[in-house]
Write a structure and sequence with these properties.
754 residues, alpha+beta, Aldehyde Oxidoreductase, domain 4, Aldehyde Oxidoreductase, domain 3, seven-stranded mixed β-sheet, five-stranded mixed β-sheet, binds dioxothiomolybdenum(VI) ion
């Protein structure tokens, strides 16, 4: 399988390091001209179309399917049901490890959530498959549904997020609350949000004996290979995944979903290539969602405004058949200094698909509640919200007691406030109106997200023609990996960007790990960086050991790689080109390898997080309660910035998701049927251009010597945190009304007329 390569470089690359250059996306032209090939754009010879039939009940069993009617439809080739599905080597309900999620692969007639696949119709055309699926007319035996967070059979989850304890305690919260002169206790609710990347999950699968080729969007190809290998009983290396471009991932494509596997099963069943693409409404069930939360915050503070206690409790939900618990309360471990901090979670089980990772899992809903409560406390203390946050600034990570590897949050507050004009904010609410008479309010929130790393590998090659190659099977969900990682590659190889080939996006390349947890640039970037260092060291060995080289005797540590030449560090007038070194050695090329991973020693010593401050201006119609965000200024510090243009775009995307969280996104669940009632982008609202305010993202300078050698933290998720809280706080400042239920609905504000 040919790997996917991008070699074009924009004209404005300057000599010297490509790191830090604001390059445009190298895949941008491909995308805007429609030539970037997404999974569903593939069309191998002989391909059939598969369409899912999904359940319209949330709990019970499928009592009947009219398979005969579907099969009789012209063009329908096969109908895959529990009766004839190809055998699997592994029970899809087997739980190998906490992050092998149970999948619905037609293993029985049970229905455990709405929109669960119950059959797959395979046909010569998409239309025939769609019509065939409609003809199945399933009948059900429905059972009573568990919906909503109110049920009282809640329990303490075994773990939250990725293996974190559900309850943590630092100091004595009850004593801290008792000692407080000011107390705030409030309950905040966030709704279920369903994954709705622009590109729905899709797969084009072709089998050749026991070898499988798939085009499918993935945020983790090696994990997908392992899961598919287990299910089909084949070797992971016999599974070839192409995933060069994703139309968004946001966590939903981190693990291979059931529908993607069903497409592969369908191809196995019919012995021909098969394409399966989810319809938009089918995204509301089998591909993960963010669980709803109900969070109780109890804060205490002294008369000086210093926090004496933070108690953050989150009630959330998982499915009836698997475990994923949104770690919403854990953001309180990091944000504010307090002698006493307790976090706890409880959960109920609902007849929904299993919730999963969704952009800033934990921090996104958690920071809404905490940042709202902090604002309420600042108000109760009669303090400016920024002054209150500075008063409670965490100099070390409060719960762990560890020093931060770096923390430029104070600079974020200062630069963001300055740019926004925060200093002229009146303390009391309802003080500002615009020229049209709308109520104007200003609010702020603190943003934070851990600086994580997973594991990645890369391979580097320098060729005798003076060009280089870097290979790593990275994932570009739209965040810009094709560009940012290539910049790190060019830097690591000491070549200009137009002299390297960056090969990525397929599973046959070295494993670049997971594009998730805002960790991809750091992890894959470090693999690339170390592969570059490895090949340069080998090249330097060739030169410095050869008395015909001007570098003879310089020693490895004594050379610098730049612009396709090695220079003596102590005398830059002495240099030699890569091409000359390789030619004299008679080598057509030379290869190096590298890996990127967390440094456990640094991890155990330091708390590693990106930080930011978001300032929001809203305008509220006093008669109608309509809220518009008119301005957002975010200032973020996330270590080394590889490409400021792309990073700014990540921050904008996160902040827009924050607008969505505050004002728009809401899966409306029917309490009787358990079904999402708005499974389409007409009624499941996300911000459109007209909802997006003036955005500014300030890239605050920060050098982190501990996170990794390049100093990279993550930028993908932090923008989602803090923003929605800032907007809610601005709504309070505009109206004097504290809305604690998200998204903020105009009926909560309709009584604002003065
Ligand atoms: Mo993410 S929720 O780490 O794509």
């Amino acid at each position: 399988m040919p790997e996917i390569t991008l070699t074009q470089a924009p004209a404005h690359v300057r000599h010297g390091s490509s790191i830090g250059q604001p390059l445009t996306r190298r895949d941008g032209v491909l995308k805007v001209t429609g030539t970037a090939r997404y999974a569903a754009d593939n069309h191998p010879d002989g391909m059939l179309y598969a369409v899912l039939a999904v359940s319209s009940i949330s709990r019970g069993r499928v009592a009947g399917l009219d398979v005969g009617a579907a099969k009789a439809h012209p063009g329908v080739v096969e109908v895959m049901t529990p009766a004839n599905k190809p055998p699997l080597a592994q029970d899809p309900d087997e739980k190998g490890n906490p992050f092998t999620f149970r999948l619905d692969l037609l293993q029985s007639d049970r229905v455990r959530y709405a929109n669960q696949p119950v059959a797959v119709v395979i046909a010569e055309t998409l239309e025939a498959a769609t019509e065939g699926a409609a003809l199945l007319s399933p009948c059900y035996e429905a059972e009573p549904v568990r919906a909503g967070l109110d049920s009282d059979d809640s329990f303490v989850p075994p773990a939250v997020g990725v293996g974190n304890p559900a309850e943590e305690r630092h100091g004595d919260v009850d004593a801290g609350l008792a000692a407080a002169t000011v107390r705030v206790e409030a309950v905040y609710e966030t709704p279920a949000q369903y994954h709705n990347a622009m590109e729905p999950h899709a797969v084009v699968a072709s089998w050749d004996g026991d070898t499988l080729s798939i085009d499918t969007p993935s945020q983790g190809m090696a994990m997908a290979q392992a899961r598919i290998a287990g299910l089909f009983g084949i070797a992971p290396e016999n599974i070839h995944i192409r995933s060069p471009f994703l139309g968004g991932g946001f966590g939903s494509k981190g693990l291979i979903s059931g529908p993607q596997v069903l497409g592969i099963m369908a191809a196995r069943l019919v012995g021909r290539p098969v394409k399966l693409v989810l319809r938009r409404e089918q995204m509301f069930g089998p591909v993960g969602h963010r669980a709803p939360t109900r969070q109780t915050l109890r804060l205490g503070a002294g008369s000086d405004g210093a926090l004496t206690a933070i108690d953050h409790h989150a009630k959330t939900a998982s499915s009836t058949f698997d475990d994923f618990f949104e770690p919403a309360a854990n953001v309180a471990h990091t944000l504010y200094a307090s002698p006493a901090i307790a976090t706890s979670h409880e959960a109920v089980r609902l007849d929904t698909g299993t919730p999963q990772f969704m952009r800033a899992p934990g921090e996104a809903p958690g920071s809404i509640a905490l940042e709202s409560a902090i604002d309420e406390m600042a108000q109760a203390c009669g303090m400016d919200p920024l002054a209150f946050r500075l008063k409670n600034y965490a100099e070390v990570e409060p719960v762990s007691g560890k020093p931060f590897s770096s923390k430029a949050l104070r600079d974020c507050y200062t630069q963001g406030a300055e740019r926004f004009g925060w200093a002229s904010r009146p303390l009391a609410p309802r003080q500002m109106r615009d020229e049209a008479g709308l109520l104007v309010g200003w609010g702020m929130g603190t943003a934070t997200f851990p600086a994580l790393m997973f594991q990645a590998q890369a391979r580097a090659v320098l060729r005798s023609d003076g060009t280089g190659v870097m290979e790593t099977g990275a994932h570009d969900m739209g965040q810009g990996a094709w560009t940012a990682l290539a910049q790190i590659a060019a830097d690591g190889l000491g070549l200009d960007l137009d002299r390297i080939e960056f090969r990525s996006g397929t599973s046959d390349l070295p494993d670049a790990g997971i594009a998730g947890g805002s960790a991809h640039t750091a992890t894959a970037g470090m693999a690339i960086h170390s592969a570059g260092a490895d090949v340069i060291a080998r090249l330097a060995d060739l030169a410095t050991a050869d008395e015909r080289s001007p570098l003879f005797g310089a020693g490895n540590a004594g050379v610098i790689a730049r612009g396709g030449r090695l220079f003596r560090r102590d005398d830059e007038s002495r240099s030699e080109s890569y091409a000359d070194i390789l030619a004299r050695a008679g080598l057509p090329e030379i290869e190096g390898r590298g890996s990127g991973a967390t440094d456990p020693a640094a991890q155990s010593t330091y708390a590693m997080h990106a930080h930011g401050a978001v300032f929001a201006e809203v305008k509220v119609d006093p008669d109608l309660g309509q809220v518009r965000v008119s301005r957002l200024v975010g200032a973020f510090a996330a270590g080394t910035i590889i490409n400021p243009r792309l990073v700014r775009s990540q921050y904008y995307g996160g902040m827009i998701w924050g607008v969505s969280f505050a004002l728009h996104e809401h899966a409306v669940m029917d309490g009787r049927s358990g079904r999402p009632m708005n499974p389409n982008l007409g009624e499941y609202h996300v911000p459109v251009n007209a909802d997006v305010p003036s955005l500014e993202a300030i890239l605050v300078e920060e050098r982190d010597p501990h996170v990794n050698a390049l100093g990279i933290k993550g930028v993908g998720e932090i923008g989602v945190t803090g923003t929605a809280g800032a907007i809610a706080n601005a709504v309070w400042h505009a109206t004097g009304i504290r809305v604690r239920r998200f998204p903020i609905a105009l009926e909560s504000l309709i009584a604002t007329a003065a």
